[in-house]
């Protein structure tokens, strides 16, 4: 069935804003500017402040929810249920996981390439599958195990490509290894977040925009408050600011004043995360979660291609192989192989309910698959 213009717009919006999200964060990392007190020029390495901006973008989804609610007022049929009772504190544990995982990923993005960052995020499939078995009592059918094994193989290939790309002038080999490991660690936390959402949040049938916005509110408030003690916590060589602390928000604002394009990059990151959430939820509703997964894979290609074109990283053929293997793992895990099998065999029947009811499948989309 042909897509409508609105559906094409939503798909394009998701692809573009999802790509801008990662690229704008990496663009900000690449800027060099003076800090406070006339300190020497240094890179804009403020991952925790960038994470605050990301949560601000998520928080804006709450405004989108209430706008939809106002629009639906007076209509007999509404996709927004303002009377749905739920305790907002249910979102606090997932928000803490989101805050920790996002902060780790922004730290890692300072150390590795944007394309590797996007590819290695596919590791979430491994931990989500394992945690769903351990804590939700799921049973993984063979196609899911094959998807997990293929994802592991793809991660190994991508990691090997990073190790062999020693000619990258932006990142030392030790930084690349540390960054890749941090991304993997972050996916463990993201998987815990998804399990918590599945176990405690989904059953309340909260509107996705409301869920994302509520988690964004918690993350924004808590992480903003944590910027104060971070200013005094020494981080040694791990720090990217002249003060040598975990985060120096004052230095970040001074650099913003010296180089206004950093503000443009941060604004792009904040706005893109908001539109990406809206577009992703709308694509799932108007088309399917399968289409959303395909578009998410396509944005990895866009990020990789633009990073190469901008000279942010060097080409390595192993990345192609790694991406294809990761794509295969994602396809198997999310059941994208079923339509192909349906075309090849008329005798194909839908998979049993036990296979369809799982995390990250066509019926259950993570509440905020955003970073």
From TrEMBL:
<dbReference type="InterPro" id="IPR012404">
    <property type="entry name" value="UCP036436"/>
</dbReference>
<feature type="transmembrane region" description="Helical">
    <location>
        <begin position="176"/>
        <end position="196"/>
    </location>
</feature>
<feature type="signal peptide">
    <location>
        <begin position="1"/>
        <end position="18"/>
    </location>
</feature>
<feature type="transmembrane region" description="Helical">
    <location>
        <begin position="293"/>
        <end position="312"/>
    </location>
</feature>
<dbReference type="InterPro" id="IPR037185">
    <property type="entry name" value="EmrE-like"/>
</dbReference>
<keyword id="KW-0472">Membrane</keyword>
<keyword id="KW-0496">Mitochondrion</keyword>
<feature type="transmembrane region" description="Helical">
    <location>
        <begin position="89"/>
        <end position="107"/>
    </location>
</feature>
<dbReference type="GO" id="GO:0008284">
    <property type="term" value="P:positive regulation of cell population proliferation"/>
</dbReference>
<feature type="transmembrane region" description="Helical">
    <location>
        <begin position="119"/>
        <end position="137"/>
    </location>
</feature>
<feature type="transmembrane region" description="Helical">
    <location>
        <begin position="216"/>
        <end position="233"/>
    </location>
</feature>
<comment type="similarity">
    <text>Belongs to the SLC35F solute transporter family.</text>
</comment>
<dbReference type="Pfam" id="PF06027">
    <property type="entry name" value="SLC35F"/>
</dbReference>
<dbReference type="GO" id="GO:0022857">
    <property type="term" value="F:transmembrane transporter activity"/>
</dbReference>
<keyword id="KW-0813">Transport</keyword>
<feature type="transmembrane region" description="Helical">
    <location>
        <begin position="261"/>
        <end position="281"/>
    </location>
</feature>
<dbReference type="GO" id="GO:0016020">
    <property type="term" value="C:membrane"/>
</dbReference>
<keyword id="KW-1133">Transmembrane helix</keyword>
<dbReference type="GO" id="GO:1901029">
    <property type="term" value="P:negative regulation of mitochondrial outer membrane permeabilization involved in apoptotic signaling pathway"/>
</dbReference>
<keyword id="KW-0812">Transmembrane</keyword>
<protein>
    <recommendedName>
        <fullName>Solute carrier family 35 member F6</fullName>
    </recommendedName>
</protein>
<keyword id="KW-0732">Signal</keyword>
<dbReference type="InterPro" id="IPR009262">
    <property type="entry name" value="SLC35_F1/F2/F6"/>
</dbReference>
<dbReference type="GO" id="GO:0005739">
    <property type="term" value="C:mitochondrion"/>
</dbReference>
<comment type="function">
    <text>May play a role as a nucleotide-sugar transporter.</text>
</comment>
<feature type="transmembrane region" description="Helical">
    <location>
        <begin position="48"/>
        <end position="68"/>
    </location>
</feature>
<feature type="transmembrane region" description="Helical">
    <location>
        <begin position="318"/>
        <end position="336"/>
    </location>
</feature>
<comment type="subunit">
    <text>Interacts with SLC25A5.</text>
</comment>
<feature type="transmembrane region" description="Helical">
    <location>
        <begin position="144"/>
        <end position="164"/>
    </location>
</feature>
